[in-house]
Specification:
7-stranded mixed sheet, UBC, 2 domains, Jelly Rolls, 24 strands, 7-stranded antiparallel sheet, about 400 residues, UBQ-conjugating_enzyme/RWD, elongated, alpha+beta, Ubiquitin Conjugating Enzyme
Length: about 400
């Protein structure tokens, strides 16, 4: 490798490591002194792999920067374009991921010599966390987050890191947002909930936009939540309408797989993918409903961190309309799709709740999150696999949940 190219390369790698807050990537030279090989870790902030350590290798070809680096991601992700060429993991001349930026323009890709390593990893990180994944042929393909996927990718990340950790850089401290403790009234639910038996348990009524600081909360231990169980929290102005079938219903909804919803009176329900599934801590979830937000936080080592707070969980007139004097009900919805029953234990809140207080994001619009289009009821997603066979993925958990809520 020419000295000037090596100098540029090392500068670009330093830039990546210096911008961990945004790129969430750390790159280090190969410990065996292979000047063309670098190890990297990626720690996504969103998506099914949020806060998990993904590991891989980057190889620099002799033709860099005219040709892009070769990227091998050792961690399985269950994302089609990411895992498609895992058979190439021993091939230093071909990437294991299938994205245009990993091919030069001369080979029908998008890479050009002005691109940097930072630009490459920013693009790859976006592909790892986005709800929709660009395809070489046809429209972007949705990649759904389910409880099963959350369980799987945790194990993939653990196994791949343990296998390759001797060649990996040190894991940096992950920047997390700690929630703010407030006094809160306990919402009364049964001490033990069996998944799907019944599918809905309800507390309330409570009132919003009262002008005071009253908050309500409950806490649950989800460590026993099985892969085939849907878990959602729904705040609705109706005791029975959990999806917004009635025009007058107002609701917000959040769950453990990053899908969420909001509905104003007289308007249709809007479904979102906010990108932050329940993939952290020990699965102890604390839900607080304050005057301006419904916030999910998780318990990790005695601290509470924001889980899924986003604009669609805010409860001001701007988001859900003027609901002063309207009774609201808090529903815990569970549905067993497969496997055995799960036990969900209610925890003592000790009169506390936890809210997200960050003025910098208080005015963000819901368009920062991906709006999810509802497919036809019978639609499934079919894709072509590398060996020519077809794999069929059933409709995503979001729509199964929506259909299950039709009561």
């Amino acid at each position: 490798m020419q000295a000037k190219i090596l100098k540029r390369l090392l500068k670009e790698i330093d830039d990546v490591n210096a911008d961990f807050f945004n790129l969430r990537t750390v790159i280090s030279p190969d410990p065996e002194d292979d000047i063309t090989r670098f190890s990297f870790i990626m720690i996504p902030n969103d998506g099914a792999m949020a806060h998990l350590t993904l590991v891989g290798a980057m190889y620099i070809p002799d033709t860099y920067p005219e040709s892009p680096p070769v990227i091998h991601l050792y961690t399985m992700t269950e994302r089609y374009n990411v895992d498609i060429y895992r058979g190439r993991l021993e091939n230093k001349n071909a990437s294991s991921l299938c994205f245009n930026i990993l091919r030069a323009k001369s080979k029908d890709g998008t890479w050009n010599e002005d691109y940097t390593i930072s630009a490459l990893f920013a693009s790859l990180m976006s592909a790892l966390v986005s709800f929709y994944v660009p395809q070489e042929i046809g429209p972007d393909r949705p990649e759904y987050v389910t409880m099963e996927k959350l369980h799987n990718v945790k194990q993939y990340a653990k196994d791949s890191y343990n296998t390759h950790k001797d060649r990996m850089p040190a894991i940096p401290q992950i920047p997390l947002v700690e929630a703010t403790m407030v006094k809160a009234k306990k919402l009364n639910f049964p001490p033990v909930i069996l998944s799907g038996e019944p599918e809905r348990v309800t507390a309330g009524p409570i009132y919003l936009q009262t002008g005071n600081s009253t908050a309500h909360s409950f806490a649950v231990d989800l460590s026993g939540l099985r892969e085939g169980v849907i878990f959602s929290v729904i705040l609705s102005s109706s005791e029975t309408d959990l999806i917004g079938k009635k025009p007058e219903t107002v609701l917000v909804r959040n769950g453990v797989t990053a899908s969420a919803a909001r509905k104003r009176k007289g308007q249709p329900t809007r479904w979102f993918y906010h990108g932050t599934p329940m993939n952290d801590g020990d699965m102890k979830l604390h839900v607080t409903i304050g005057q301006d937000q419904m916030t999910l936080v998780y318990n990790s080592n005695g601290r509470r961190y924001v889980h899924g707070d986003c604009p669609l969980s805010r409860l001001t007139p701007l988001e859900i309309g003027d609901v002063r004097g309207v009774p609201f009900y808090v529903h815990i919805f569970t549905k067993k799709k497969s496997g055995g029953r799960s036990k969900i234990f209610l925890l003592d809140t000790h009169g506390k709740g936890y809210l997200y207080q960050d003025p910098e994001v208080a005015d963000k619009d819901t368009l920062d999150f991906e709006i999810v289009d509802h497919p036809n009821e019978s639609e499934v997603v079919s894709r072509q696999s590398p060996d020519g066979s077809h794999a069929v993925e059933a409709e995503q958990e979001l729509w199964e949940e929506l259909d299950a809520l039709k009561i």
